[in-house]
Amino acid sequence: MRLLSLVTTDFRGFYGVQQVNFAYDDVKRVTVLHGENGAGKTNFLNAIHWCITGKFTPRFQDQKLLVNKEAAKEGQRECSVEILFKDEESSGGKEYRVRRCATNEKQTSFEVFEIERGNSKLIDRGESLIQLLLPPGLISWFFFDAEAIGSLELSGNPEFKRDLRKTLGFELIDRLLLDLDSVQAKLRREVANQSNDKQLLALQADMDNIDRVLPGQKSSLEALQEKTKEVSIAMAQTNANLSKLPQAEPLQRQRDSEEAKKRRLEDDHKVYTAKAATLIGRAAPALVLNDLTTKLEGRLEDQEVKGRLPAPYSDQLVKDILERELCICGRPVKEGSHEAHKINELLQFASTGALNQRISDVRYLIRDIERNSSEFPVQIAEIRQQITRIDREIAKCEDEIKDLTKQLQGIDVAEIQKLEKERQQLQREFESLHQQVGGMAHQIEQNVKRYKDLKAQHEAASRKLKVSERLKNQLSKAERLSNYIRRSLQEQENRALHILALELNSVLEKYLTKHYKAKINAANYAVQLVDADGKNVGHSTGEGQVLKFAFIATVVALAAKKTQEKIQWMTEPTIAPLVLDAPFSALDPEYQGSVAKNLALQTTQLVLMISSAAWGEKVAAALEGVVGKRYLILSQEAGPQGSKPVKPLNINGTEYLLNSYGAERTQSILKEVKV
């Protein structure tokens, strides 16, 4: 998908009809919209977001007031947003026009048109087409309120993994596998019915019950995770609002720091707990076998003493004596003599090279088990000490957070009290949702595990029964196909994560001033920045913010096949423009230019809404040569200027004023600046 143009009609701050044409060719693919805080950058982002999905970004305020206030005074009751875009993945690169209209009370219409030779043809069920091209669950990856970058969690929660899998195109394969599972369930049901076996029928009934329950549970889990994400973003916004108040700023800053520290400690706790579980699993056999190996070695020694195991001489020595007809003591040993007969008898006790090697292997295994059984308890004890230390530090953080919260609540300022009360309410809601998510995830996990056990029992029981060969062959084919696709999907997923890590670290190596690297956990997709010693670097640091921008750009680039290493996708991933509101305000100035350059390189189309403060020399230099369209979001106020400042912006030696006063009406105006 490439955006071609956007037209707003009386939407939020944009009075009347206003239009932006986007840069979209392969070289000049960046569109920049300059505007001050409050001018309409977030409104512009949400115009795109709402037109495509019918929803808004979590930080978008007064979501029910969509019609421009000035237009409403004049009697206008409806607003609309219209987007023209090209789907380059379709045959010939089809163009589409999407139009969404609404009143302040409710949405009134949504239409999708296919453009053919300049004519618009209305598409039935256009919503399905848009969701196919850009699924609603993925839009937050491509249309992003960058001021909320701090709330982007890379710690590997289930929702994060789910959304990333969708972006990389794995969702369709997951659906195919679900369909194949349904086919197998149907065939197993036929096997049970054909055999009329009571055990098989009972197993099938239990599996059918899980099949009925599981989709609803998964749907409920996704809804809970989405709600949890919204509450988390709302908490972040409330915290940001608290931080802006002079009386609360230092306390809120401390609390934010403690909460970030607590999250890092909780992540570490999960890591060490997993290590302990893995180590205990590896240690169990060694600890159990240790006593047995001691007895085994004693048994070996007893058998050697009794002569039941080969003595400490080899069969080759005996053969050499007989061949040379000379004993090692110098006495002759003639063939057929009494001496030769006695020496021949020794062969039954002599060791062979192969047998010696087997005995040596057994002894080596015994030594290895003994060494492991002595090392594991020490390693496990060290990990448990780390877990205990982390538990103590988490408890300290919780006490500090409680104390800071009490101090904030004690400040007698109405706005602080209001925000703090709001925050406490959101915190309770978040904790409740978190518990519900955990409970539902556990139920799903138990049902999936039980289904797997029932399936194994069903397969074992059905093999003993007489059913038609046709049915057996059909079930076998479905199972083989499902297993093949799962293996192929896992291989592609591992390769995608490997390339993602390579590309991500390539970016970090170029732009970070410190020797940090990113690691991606293949199990939960968690992304962590580590220093040269392998220690975790907090996501709230300047480098952590760079990691988040680099990660978003790399994911978009991988989906668009713009990475150096390519993947032959089983299904096409999502390809869309990257639209960012206030992309550099959360970054340290030293990183703004490098992040801007990386975003431009990694994307097929980039739209930036940026303030004059963030548009410095480094950013301008980084985007030189790739900016194809540039607009000003001019803020006009009907009231007098008074002591309010006017913000200037210098572009290529020309100064533009981004706000003005004494205008005919209060509004935001989109004005193109020639590149």
UniProtKB/TrEMBL annotation:
GO molecular function terms noted in the UniProt entry = ATP hydrolysis activity
Instruction: List the SUPFAM superfamilies.
Output: P-loop containing nucleoside triphosphate hydrolases (SSF52540)
In Swiss-Prot or TrEMBL terms, this protein is called Rad50/SbcC-type AAA domain-containing protein
GO BP annotations, alphabetical order: double-strand break repair
Q: Which PANTHER family match?
A: ABC TRANSPORTER ABCH.3
Q: Which UniProt keywords apply?
A: Coiled coil
Coiled-coil parts of chain: 380-471
Q: Where do the Rad50/SbcC-type AAA domain residues begin and end?
A: 10-231
- For the region Disordered, give the residue spans: 242-266
Note the InterPro entries from the entry. Answer: P-loop_NTPase, Rad50/SbcC_AAA
Bias (Basic and acidic residues): 252-266
Acyltransferase: present as a keyword of the record? no
